[in-house]
Amino acid sequence: GGAAGGGEGTAAGEGAPFTEGEALMGAREACVEQGGPEAAAAHPDRALVLMWPDYGGRGSYGLACLRAYRGDRLLLVGEWRGATFGRRSESGESFSAEFQREVEAGFVREELHRLPTWPGSLDHVAVWRRRRA
Q1: pLDDT at 110
Q2: Are β-strands 73-78 and 124-130 bridged in parallel, bridged antiparallel, or unpaired?
Q3: For residues 117 and 25, what is the distance between their CA atoms, to the nearest angstrom?
Q4: Do residues 10 and 48 make contact, with C-beta atoms less than 8 angstroms apart?
Q5: What CA–CA distance (Å, rounded) separates 14 from 52?
Q6: Whole-angstrom Cα distance, residue 93 to residue 108?
Q7: Could you write out the DSSP letters of every residue in 21-89?
Q8: Among residues 32, 70, 103, 124, which is most buried (max CB within 10 A)?
Q9: What is the b/e burial string over 2-17, where b = at least 16 CB atoms within 10 angstroms of the residue's CB?
Q10: pLDDT by residue, tens only, the chain of 133 residues
């Protein structure tokens, strides 16, 4: 099942600048597996969970995971264009502008929930479903 239904998810995230294996915000839940684009490609039956993959709104890690993923559900945690203080970028601190364009072109946002955040951040969790032709 997908994470939207309380099932399993595959996390492809924790992009730089943090040390490999370093816990930024505490322990990961046991049902969430760490991975990258290869893990995203291997689990089309699961939701892809990305949390701030492109720190500072720069990078291509999120996009690489998205392009490898063939499943139907995304759970995205962070800032998004239109929901950011725009300190460094109009697209926010969490996902590159190119990643956001690709998600919006290929997926439909089904849910959006504001999260408690650090001062200066406007994090949300969004659930997206792949568009079908």
Answers
A1: 97
A2: antiparallel
A3: 12
A4: yes
A5: 7
A6: 21
A7: T--SSSPPPTTEEEE-HHHHHH-TTSEEEEES-SGGG--SHHHHHHHH--SSEEEEEE-BTTBS--SS-
A8: 103
A9: bbbeeebbbbbbbbee
A10: 344 444 445 455 444 444 545 555 566 677 767 789 999 999 999 999 999 899 888 899 999 999 999 999 999 999 887 666 666 667 687 899 999 999 999 999 999 998 887 777 788 899 999 998 7
Tokens of 101: 């364009």
Indicate the helix (H) or strand (E) that contains 127.
Answer: strand 124-130
pLDDT at 6: 42
Give yes or no for a contact between 107 and 74, defined as CB atoms under 8 angstroms apart.
yes
Q: Which two tokens stand for residue 69?
A: 């993923």
Q: How far apart are CA 103 and CA 61, in angstroms?
A: 14
For residues 107 and 38, what is the distance between their CA atoms, to the nearest angstrom?
Answer: 21
| The token pair that represents 11 in the structure block | 């996390």
Rounded Cα gap, residues 74 and 71, in angstroms: 8
